[in-house]
Amino acid sequence: MNLENDHNVYILGAGFSADAGLPLIPNFLTRMRDSHPWLIDRGRIREADAIQAVLEFRLKATAAGYWTSVDLENLEELFSLASVEGTQLLYHMRYAIAATLDFCKQTAGRKTRRLAPRGTSANDLKARFPWLGEFTNQAFEVPSYAFYMARLLGMFNNTGGNPVGQNTFITFNYDTLVEDGFHHLKVPFNYGFDPNKAKLSNSARACFDKTAIKILKLHGSINWQYQLTDAFGLQDCPTIFGDYNEINNAMVSPEIVPPTWRKVFDGALGGVWTEAIKSLHTATRIVVIGFSIPPTDTHFKFIISAGLKENISLRQILFINPDATNIKERASSIFRQEHISTRKVQFIEFRMESYLDNQDAPAAIGRPKRAEIEFDVF
Questions:
Q1: Model pTM?
Q2: Stretch (H or E) spanning 255
C-alpha cells in the first residue's frame, strides 16, 4: 500500500498560462493571425510559412463549415479536420502553435509581481529567499510564474524557503512557464522521461534526477525535439532543449501533440503518461487549475480513473477556475455526486493569479505560509 499524507498533484490547463498573455482555444487562431507579420518582420520565415499553411487550410475548409456544424475558428475543431490531411500539415501545425505561443509570450505586457514586505526587513527576506528579485521602491520584483510556483510549492515559509511536502505537476500546456518559474527559484525538475529514451542538450534546464520535482507534459513541449521515425518504425530519442528559441535555431520540429481527436501518445511521450498515472496513485490532493474539462478531451477522465484506482491517500480534489459553474457541471459526468455534495470535490471560482495573490490561499492546498512573513502583492 502506497500511503502518502502530503502529496499535491497539480493538473494545469490553458487557463493557467493566460496571465502570461498566452491564448485560450477560442482565440488561438486570432492570435495566430496576429503573429504572422511579427514573425516576418523578424525574419522568422519558416514559422510564418507554417502559419500561412494552416490559415490556407482554414480558408479551404470553409465548405465543411457550410454543410456541418464545425467551428472553424476553434483551433481544436479546425486541427481535428486538418489531421486527416497528412504529415506535412501536421508538421506545419506544430510549428504554427509553437510560433504563436512564442509571439504571445514575447509581446505580453506585465510579467512580474511586486511583493512589499510587512513587518520583516527586506535584507532578512532576501537572505532567506535568495530567489527574490530586485528590491526597488519598497518592493521585490519577482517574475510572475516564479511567484506562482513559490506559492504552489509552499516556499513562502520561515524554514529556509524550500518546497513543502511532495509535489507533481501534470500539464496539458505546451509552454515553458512552469519551467521558467522553477529555474528562477533554482528548484530542480525532471520531465519524467526514461533516461534511455531522451537526451538532454547542453542548454537543458531539466535533469534525470528521480528525486527532482516532476513536470509531466502530457501533450509535449515547445522545447522538446520531435521524435523521428525511420523506415523500420524505430523512433529516435527526443532531445530536450532549454527553450523554444533553441529548438527553432536547431531547425528541428517541436514535440507537441496538436489538439485533435487523433491524439497519439507513444515512445518517450507514452512514458510521461505512465509517470502521470503513477503520481496519481499517491496523490493526497489533486489541484486542477485553469483546465475547463472540454467535452472533446476524454483523456482527462481516464487518466484520473486510471490514477485513482490504486489510490488510498486522496483527501480532496480542488478545481480553481473563473468558470466554476460550468466546470462543476462537466465534472459531474466524471466524479460521483456524493463527493461533490460533500465538497471532497470542490470548486473555487477564481482566476489562478487572483487566487494565488491571496496571502491565505495556499492553506487550502496544504501549503500554508508560516509565521513572520507578510507582504502585499501588486
A1: 0.93
A2: strand 254-256
